[in-house]
């Protein structure tokens, strides 16, 4: 508990946390505005055409609405998660960068306990980022949907699931950040790796695997991309399952595995490492 | 519980192609300031870091009060260490740096202010670390080491970057800690400093123990040849008078005195009297630690 408190004090006594929080807030505003604009033009644009297919068309509209609502309620995820993973990374790498790791390990020779405290605090910081973002998303989305004369869908099971799993994603990315930090001690290298893997990873690798799968005519290759943390987390928070995609829980499992594996390997390395 | 003896036994650290510390054994007693001396690259820092569980030894043990650092129930209340001056987050204030350590060690927050007062850093408590001078950083390091009021202090090159006033302060501070019965181990490559500060010395070179013991004894054990400073208006006559003594060597110094080696002062006086030579000064010179040190570590210091 002492160590958790120490990590919290560490986090609150430098500028990192509020700069990242500010970054997350600004990018949240931008993405919410973008999501709302997209939702405005996609929802309600589709009107039922044939009376015979009326029911099906209605379902499609509702489905579309729920997908959009879930998307709106989880706005800011893309950059929010990025800031959370960077926060986790900085919690570890700044100790090496500023050589405070020496006094940290002098105070607590049990290094596993130190890393564990960091994992807990990073996960909790992720949770807080989610709480604040969701606290902004819920009223903003409700106002937007009511302005569009649409139901808020807040009580809808799929929407609730998306919101809660979004929270899990924030926690797991915080933990994952600490894992990356202990594996790549260099502040610059860890940050650059994470940003590239996260942003480019999502877009480029998805395309790459799809192309590769098509070219080699092997469907399973396309599935590999869901093993990547960024793809897995967007899979996890999707409001509903899209065709040809694994279920949302697969994304959750993949992300948990990443967080556990990086955290464990990093801790084992740190236990043995000479600090000089 | 009050025993703060440091025991290093057969301590060895091998890096890929470098034997940094080679079967090193020595003890450090409480109530005394012990100087840990050696040329740069001798393995001092590696040894201290092995004592503190920061570096894992290849072989051997290092204990404080009979326990390995990692096995201490409350390390901050037992051992205080100052390793390098620049070990705080640049954007954190000195006081907050200490508060982080207090939180981790389960010490009350007010200890941060207590130790800042102790090292005279209170006026800079709320300033960020990046605005600290090197001397202030050293003081902050000492403040951090004193947080748990430990009975054992270890400092790695604490004089580095300090101005003469800071060095004088440090000397008084460390000596007062030793007088309180604490164990104080200070590494340095500056021997003149240790001569003023230390009660005991442990001298190492190339990772091996060269000599350990009280400063006076180590010096005495090294007086292999007598050095006597002689001042006389009749240089030639004295040189002639001394030529009859076996082993005597005379060297003229730039300040006009003569350095006589190989014979003791009484023998020189006797020879001068017999030769009717007028003497203005006849002073046996005590070899300083610097000379002894260079003699002991000669040829072992090189770049490794």
From TrEMBL, chain A:
Signal peptide: none annotated. Keywords: Membrane, Transmembrane, Transmembrane helix. It comes from the Bacteria. The chain crosses the membrane at residues 12-34, 78-98, 119-143, 163-184, 196-216, 248-269. The keyword Membrane applies. PANTHER family: INTEGRAL MEMBRANE PROTEIN-RELATED (PTHR37305), MEMBRANE PROTEIN (PTHR37305:SF1). This is ABC transporter permease. It comes from Asanoa siamensis.
Automatic annotation (TrEMBL), chain B:
The keyword Cell cycle does not apply. Pfam families: ABC_tran (PF00005). The keyword Transport applies. Residues 6-231 form the ABC transporter domain. It comes from the Bacteria. Signal peptide: none annotated. GO terms for molecular function: ATP binding. Keywords: ATP-binding, Nucleotide-binding, Transport. Belongs to the ABC transporter superfamily. This is ABC transporter ATP-binding protein.
């Amino acid at each position: 508990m002492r160590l958790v408190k120490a990590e919290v004090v560490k986090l609150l006594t430098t500028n990192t946390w509020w700069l990242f929080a500010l970054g997350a807030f600004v990018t949240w505003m931008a993405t919410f505005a973008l999501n709302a604009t997209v939702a405005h033009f996609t929802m309600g644009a589709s009107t039922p055409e044939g009376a015979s297919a009326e029911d099906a068309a209605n379902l499609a509209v509702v489905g579309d609405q729920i997908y959009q609502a879930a998307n709106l309620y989880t706005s800011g995820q893309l950059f929010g998660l990025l800031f959370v993973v960077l926060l986790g990374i900085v919690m570890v790498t700044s100790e090496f960068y500023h050589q405070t790791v020496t006094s940290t390990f002098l105070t607590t020779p049990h290094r596993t306990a130190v890393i564990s405290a960091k994992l807990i605090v990073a996960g909790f910081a992720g949770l807080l980022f989610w709480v604040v973002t969701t606290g902004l998303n819920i009223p903003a989305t409700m106002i937007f949907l009511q302005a569009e004369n649409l139901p808020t869908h807040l009580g809808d099971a799929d929407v609730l699931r998306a919101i809660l799993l979004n929270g899990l994603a924030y926690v797991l990315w915080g933990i994952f950040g600490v894992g990356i930090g202990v594996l790549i001690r260099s502040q610059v290298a860890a940050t650059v790796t994470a940003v590239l893997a996260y942003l480019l990873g999502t877009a480029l690798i998805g395309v790459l695997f799809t192309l590769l799968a098509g070219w080699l005519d092997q469907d399973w290759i396309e599935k590999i991309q869901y093993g990547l943390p960024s793809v897995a987390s967007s899979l996890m928070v999707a409001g509903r399952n899209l065709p040809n995609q694994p279920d949302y829980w697969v994304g959750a499992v993949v992300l948990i595995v990443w967080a556990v594996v990086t955290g464990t390997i990093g801790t084992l390395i740190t236990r043995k490492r000479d600090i000089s | 519980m009050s025993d703060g003896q440091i025991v290093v036994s057969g301590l060895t650290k091998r890096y890929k192609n470098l034997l940094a510390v080679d079967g090193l054994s020595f003890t450090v007693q409480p109530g005394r300031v012990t100087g840990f001396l050696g040329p740069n690259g001798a393995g001092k820092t590696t040894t201290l870091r092995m004592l503190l569980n920061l570096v894992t030894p290849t072989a051997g043990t290092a204990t404080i009060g009979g326990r390995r650092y990692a096995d201490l129930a409350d390390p901050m209340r037992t051992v205080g260490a100052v390793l390098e001056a620049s070990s705080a987050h640049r954007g954190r204030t000195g006081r907050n740096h200490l508060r982080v350590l207090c939180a981790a060690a389960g010490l009350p927050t007010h200890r941060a202010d207590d130790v800042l007062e102790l090292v005279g850093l209170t006026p800079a408590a709320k300033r960020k670390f990046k605005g600290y001078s090197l001397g202030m950083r050293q003081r902050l390091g000492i403040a951090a080491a004193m947080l748990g009021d430990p009975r054992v202090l270890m400092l790695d090159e604490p004089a580095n970057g300090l101005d003469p006033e800071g060095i004088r302060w440090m000397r008084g501070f460390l000596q007062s800690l030793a007088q309180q019965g604490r164990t104080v181990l200070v590494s340095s490559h500056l021997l003149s400093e240790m001569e003023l500060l230390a009660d005991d010395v442990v001298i190492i070179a190339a990772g091996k123990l060269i000599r350990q013991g009280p400063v006076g004894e180590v010096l005495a054990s090294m007086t292999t040849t007598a050095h006597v400073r002689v001042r006389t208006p009749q240089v030639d006559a004295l040189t002639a008078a001394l030529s009859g003594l076996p082993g005597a060597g005379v060297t003229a110094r730039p300040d006009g005195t003569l350095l006589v080696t190989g014979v003791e002062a009484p023998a020189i006086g006797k020879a001068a009297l017999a030769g009717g030579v007028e003497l203005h000064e006849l002073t046996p010179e005590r070899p300083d630690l610097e000379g002894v040190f260079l003699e002991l570590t000669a040829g072992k210091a090189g770049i490794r």
